Amino acid sequence: ADPFPLKSELNIPIFTGDEWVGLIGFADSQVVRDWTDEDMSLLTTAATMIGAFWESELARESLEELVRSKDEFLATVSHELRTPLTAVVGFGEILRDAGDNFSQEEHAEFLERVVQQGTDLTNIVNDLLVAAKADIGKLHVAVVPINLRAQASQVFEAFDDDQVANVDLEGEAVYAIGDPDRVRQIIRNFISNALRYGGDTILVTIQSDEEAAKVIVCDNGDPIPEDDRERIFEPYQRAHNAVGVTGSLGLGLAISRQLAQMMGGDVTYRYEGGESIFELALPRDASLRS
Fold this sequence. Notes:
It is a single chain. The protein has 5 helices and 9 strands; from the N terminus they run ββααβαββαββαββ. It has helices at residues 37-98, 104-135, 148-158, 180-197, 252-262, and strands spanning 8-16, 19-28, 144-147, 167-170, 175-178, 202-208, 213-219, 266-272, 275-282. Strand 1 and strand 2 form a beta hairpin. Helix 3 packs across helix 4 (180-197) and helix 4 (180-197) packs antiparallel against helix 5 (252-262). The longest helix has 62 residues, at 37-98. It is elongated. The mean pLDDT is 85.
């Protein structure tokens, strides 16, 4: 039993915005009180002041996190842009200053590396532009019938043969409703992630079921930690076991999910059977057999 049972109690809720966060009150274990308007007014004022202070602290913490995220983002962008830029400038200077010292095959190899690094730069800038458009509500997608197999094939053709030597594409023509440019962007992000973080075997499968048309990318690399499996779909976030890997802003998967959802589908991750599996699911095109 309570050694000091309350005989009188008056509580006022504390709010931050519309959220209830606690109580403040008076209590008396000696006598039964009739609480006055002054008591109520005092508690209400105290509750308002505590709520305002709490809200200001939350705002301060949020601002500090925003500044920290901005600084980290700028550092990451600078690093990721500098890496391919340095390669492009470096190979360009070699060809300009000592090009006559290299064979035709070496010239071709240097130029191919310039093209690869230029492509990486283009992809980074494209991701930044999509993220910026999304932030200001200017991101739009088309909704047209598309052949997912054909879109995946186009993505493969954009990669250098050596890059996708261990990547296989399986599945017949499957028809979905979506934006072809955005679908290719999602598939490219899937494959780029698998090449960057995955194992030595990557399989891209095109398939459909009664509910959706799908692009599934599997690799036999290490799984994403369970605590990170939703976090990776947040902007500028990467799995903790991917920190330090260059070539990514942590935007690709966040953009991919947002684009998929704008097309009426979704992007998900799971780990099963020793494989990491990223899946793009889109509405099927009912007018075409798939």
